Amino acid sequence: MTGKIGKKELAIIHIAKAQCGWSDEEYRHTLKDGFGVSSSKELTSKQADRLIALFQAEGFRIVSRPKRQPSGNPANWDRLPLQKKIGAILADIGKTEAYADGIARRMFKVDAWRWCTPEQLHKIVAALEYTRNKLTGEGPTESQARRRKKARKAQNA
Question: What is the pTM of this model?
Answer without folding.
Answer: 0.47
